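Recap from last week: sequence in, structure out.
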Amino acid sequence: MRIRHVATVLVGVAGASVTALALSGLLFRDPVPPAIAQATLWMPDPLAPPRIAETNSVRPALAQADVAFEFRPVPPLPASPADTSLPSIEPPLVIWSREIASGETLDAVLDDAGLAAFARAEIAQALGSEYDLRQLRPGHSVTVESSPNGTPRRVELAVADGLRIVTVLGDTPDTRVLEPEPEIVTFAGQAVVESSIYAALQDAGLPARFAVDLAQMLASTADLRRDLAGGEVIRLLWREARDGNQRIGQPELTFAALELGDSTYEIVWPDDESGQATIFLDGTVLQVFTPPVEGARLSSAFGNRVHPIYGNVRMHTGVDFSAPSGAPVRATAPGRISYVGWRGGYGRVVEVAHGANTITRYTHLSAVPEGLAPGQRVMAGDMIGRVGATGTATGPNLHYEVMVNGRPTDPLADNRLAEALERETDVADKLTQLSAARSLLAERLARETTPATTERL
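Predicted structure tokens:
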């Protein structure tokens, strides 16, 4: 009770103190100046309502769609891993390539490329289905494209004349033969002889192999080693098959003119496949000549020589023409087939009789046309076989002989076959060919005085 009484007294005292302080503040505050007091009584005038101008225009009422807005939240784009991932990039193929060496097989080359035995066998079978692998020669090349783990994907075999055999490997190998589509380009050039025709052509940047063609064509009419005195001019017209800047095969002569002493020898090769060439002396038909293999290289002449297989000195009873296997062999003069068959070291042989005492013999043939038989009539330029290496031969070539009364004669110097050809020659047609060749040669020489685009062989 006493505690409660004390608390009541304290509360009363506190309240009296607060009341006293408030009254003292009012009693002792300084008076407010009249100007300030007047200012506190000011209030702003009320705003007047806006005036609306009266016009004759009527504002169309807005449709609800014009003023009503509907807010639709755009859903966030889904974060797909496919949208942010980078495209897959295949690793680059590993490419290996090199040429085939002498005596080397395809299997050895593929082994050098690091391919396993089963892969080499598969590739050889695929390529062999389109190309006879026994015909591989030095200079042919093999290109292998492999994945980084060493698995072969594509194999290319490049052989002669721009021909390529390509195999794409997969579940089933796909092999294709790709043949170039060459453009035939005609070139012209001239050279001055100082020592030999071969050296003159080489120094002038012209195909030196044409020296063999000229020697073969003029063998029975001029001795190019003895009759050349120096200063003679040779003018040539030839054609090449080109795939871009690459030449395919060998160049082919179409016209040649040689100033020899006071005479001019001219030779025209026709555009047809007969291979017959006409030799003119001072504008007159002198001789018509048909080589047994068009464009072939004369590799061995008539006379004594060291035999390439037996090693002893023997009489070479004909001439040899080095040519690719399968190249067409043609009759050099009109006659009748007298023999078709096999003759020991000659291999497969075809013989043609020209009259009663002259026979031409074509040997080492790989094949003869079906139906070719003794007694059949043939004309100069008719195909009677294909180049091969049958019998005793070191490689594909044609051994060509001319037999007169059973004795061998030099095929490049005997005139009997030329006389047989001349009897069936249309002289007017030959002279027309000569005129056309002269005109084209003059035109080309005027256009390209230096054959900068030709290649030295």
